[in-house]
Each structure stands twice: as structure tokens, then as C-alpha cells.
Design a protein that fits this description.
Blueprint (H helix, E strand, L loop, with lengths): L5 E7 L18 E8 L2 E4 L13 H12 L2 H4 L12 E6 L5 H12 L3 E5 L13 H8 L5 E6 L4 H8 L4 E6 L5 H15 L6 E5 L6 H9 L6 E5 L8 H9 L3 E5 L3 H4 L4 E4 L10 H7 L18 E3 L20 H19 L6
Parallel strand pairs: 4-5, 4-6, 6-7, 8-9, 8-11, 9-10, 11-12
Antiparallel strand pairs: 1-2, 2-3
Helix pairs in contact: 1-6, 1-11, 3-11, 4-5, 6-7, 6-11
Length: 352
């Protein structure tokens, strides 16, 4: 946690001399350095790529979650902000998205910034055969930050290597989705006041689902208990489980959802993703393997919450929505809050 941390904000010109004029119109010519000091540990976020949470420390993750809290009133529309006025975000979505793309756009616009880009590879020059490297080299001259989604694992890292502007991974392949993980952690911390000590169950597609791969690694930063619930065909790869355990995470595997409902604090349900299956017949064998209903939650802890990265198909029944356990729609709202924090940090702007 931030605890006794404080913020140092320094603006410098090209020669490194301090600049007094903080006029937003001059910000394009300024080098902004933001350093958060937490118990003596300095962290720099300006100009940083957000590709994989393995690149971040627990203190840095905690810092992002703390900064996110400041943006709740703006994200809900109760306050107005021009914090990112004059900045442009470019959404490059080579794969379909609703929540991630729209929440990044909403976050940028509610902070006074502008958004450009495309929502499908079919409407980009990728359709004509343009390489990702060339796309990035062109697009970086149009914006201040790039948000990229691709079905190809490693695409975000490649884009970051090619770009002089910050690149934020909005999901690549079946492995990483760092801002989804940050909003998941934010939702848990907002609900329980902490992440340490929680008993968390991940349910559904643990083989192809990038949200659970990204989240499970992030949870190695915290002393939690993790249960993995999936049909045998969709279990998390054994080498990944071994890696989690080597990082100190307590992991339990089961195929029976009743094994975890009474003991978990967080029931994190995922969709079995048809688009990730190389073999359609494999998908047909496991679709609908789990479906959470209100009746199934009757023996759960009173404070237990049900989360889902959405979209859902049939893995959470509508009768769960009005229960005290449902948090997936609040979770989606947290996406705006967390993405506001990430954008402001990598662009070197801070409220107040």
C-alpha cells in the first residue's frame, strides 16, 4: 500500500532545466517525470509500456490501484476533467472488443483527451497486407499513446519495441491482458479492503482464457489461496501451475465447483471461448460445462462476490444478477477507473 508515500512532480525542458510554466499548451515540449515514493522505493511510469504485469512490482501495482481511486468521481460523471486535454489515444483493435475498447475510449474522453483508431482489422491496412511493425511506425506519429489488441501472442511486445510512444496491451493471444487484471484486483480490493488473505477460485476456461492467465500470475504478488476449477480438457497447463507454485502461490485443482463455493471469497467465472479453440469439436464437448445459478450460491459466504470479465454466454444465469454476490457489472465500471489511472500515469499527468 501507499502508506506514507508522496508524489514528486518535476517538469524539465529538453536541456533538463526546471520549467515553471505548466501551461498544458506547452506540455508537448516538456519532459514530465513522475516519481511515486513508497517506503523509499522510487517508481517511474511516464512513457512506460504496459504489456505484462510481470514487468511490474507489487508496489507499482498497489500504486496504480491507489491512483485509480482518485478517478472514481470522474469516471461516474460526477466531476469533469481536462487532465488529458491535447493528448490523443489510438485504439488499434485487430480483434473484437466491447468493454476494453469502449472503456479506454471513455477513460480518455472523460479526461478531456481525444480518441482515434479502428475496431477491426477488416477496416485497417492489415487487410491489404500491411505488417504490424509498419502500422505502429505510422500510427505513432498520430497519437501520444497506443492501445493494442491482437489475437497473436507477443503482438503487444513487438509493437512496444517498434514504438517511441507508450503501448498498452489490451489483450494479445491467450496469455496477457494486464489492464483487465488491474481492474480485477481493483474490484477485489474495493470490495474487501485488501487482497492479502483472500480465497479466490478461477472457473471455466483456464487453458485458453487470457484473463485467468494474467490474473493468476498477478496473484503471486499477494498471499492468497487459489483454486482452479475446470473440465480436464480446459485445465491450466501444468507448467503454468508449477510456475505459480514456485512463486509461492497456494494452488488447488478440482473439477467440482461445489468444492469451492462454500469456502471462496471470490468466484471468478470465465466464458469458454469458442474463438480460441483450434478444433470446433473440442469446444462442443466442453461448452456449458459450468453454469452458476442463484441456487448454487445459497451455501456461499455472505460476503462472497462473483466476478466475470464479460461477455457471458450461459456460465452465469440471469438470476444471479440481483443477488448480493454479483459484482461483474461493477467490475466493468472499474475498467474505466483503472484505465484512467494507467493513461494518466504513462502520459505523466496527475490530478491535483
Amino acid at each position: 500500500m501507499l502508506g506514507s508515500g508522496f508524489l514528486i512532480l518535476t517538469e524539465k525542458d529538453q536541456a533538463g532545466s526546471p520549467v515553471r510554466d505548466a501551461d498544458p499548451a506547452a506540455s508537448a515540449n516538456l519532459f514530465m517525470l513522475i516519481t511515486f515514493t513508497i517506503d523509499g522505493a522510487g517508481m517511474e511510469f511516464v512513457g512506460r509500456d504496459v504489456i505484462d504485469l510481470k514487468d511490474f512490482t507489487r508496489d507499482e501495482v498497489e500504486c496504480i490501484l491507489k491512483v485509480s481511486e482518485e478517478f472514481e468521481p470522474i469516471a461516474s460523471g460526477k466531476e469533469r476533467s481536462r487532465l488529458l486535454e491535447g493528448y490523443v489515444l489510438c485504439n488499434l483493435f485487430f480483434e473484437p472488443s466491447t468493454r476494453t475498447r469502449l472503456s479506454f475510449s471513455s477513460a480518455m474522453m472523460r479526461l478531456g483527451g481525444s480518441v482515434t483508431g479502428f475496431a477491426s482489422s477488416a477496416t485497417s491496412s492489415a487487410k491489404k497486407g500491411e505488417t504490424l511493425s509498419d502500422t505502429i511506425r505510422v500510427v505513432e506519429s498520430y497519437c501520444d499513446v497506443i492501445v493494442l489488441r491482437s489475437n497473436k501472442e507477443g503482438a503487444a511486445r513487438l509493437a512496444a519495441d517498434m514504438s517511441s510512444k507508450p503501448v498498452i496491451n489490451a489483450g494479445d493471444g491467450a496469455r496477457q491482458h494486464p489492464t483487465q487484471t488491474l481492474l480485477d484486483l481493483y474490484t477485489m480490493k474495493k470490495e474487501f479492503g485488501k487482497i492479502d488473505g483472500l480465497n479466490i477460485a478461477l472457473i471455466g476456461d483456464l487453458k485458453y482464457g487470457r484473463t485467468v492467465h494474467s490474473l493468476s500470475y498477478a496473484l503471486t504478488m499477494f498471499p492468497v489461496e487459489l483454486s482452479l476449477v475446470s473440465p480436464p480438457q480446459l485445465r491450466m497447463p501444468p507448467e503454468e501451475i508449477s510456475d505459480l507454485e514456485e512463486h509461492g502461490l497456494k494452488v488447488k485443482e478440482t473439477w467440482d465447483i461445489s468444492d469451492v463455493i462454500k469456502t471462496c471469497d471470490v468466484l471468478y467465472v470465465t466464458r469458454i471461448q469458442k474463438e480460441r479453440f483450434p478444433d470446433p469439436t473440442e469446444y462442443e464437448r466442453v461448452r456449458g460445462a459450468y453454469s452458476i445459478t442463484a441456487a448454487m450460491l445459497e451455501g456461499a459466504k455472505k460476503e462472497m462476490i462473483v466476478m466475470h470479465p464479460l461477455p457471458r454466454v450461459d456460465e452465469i444465469a440471469p438470476d444471479v444478477d440481483p443477488t448480493s454476490h454479483a459484482r461483474y457489472f461493477q467490475q466493468a465500471f472499474s475498467g474505466i477507473v483503472v484505465r484512467m489511472a494507467v493513461l494518466s500515469l504513462v502520459l505523466g499527468k496527475r490530478r491535483g
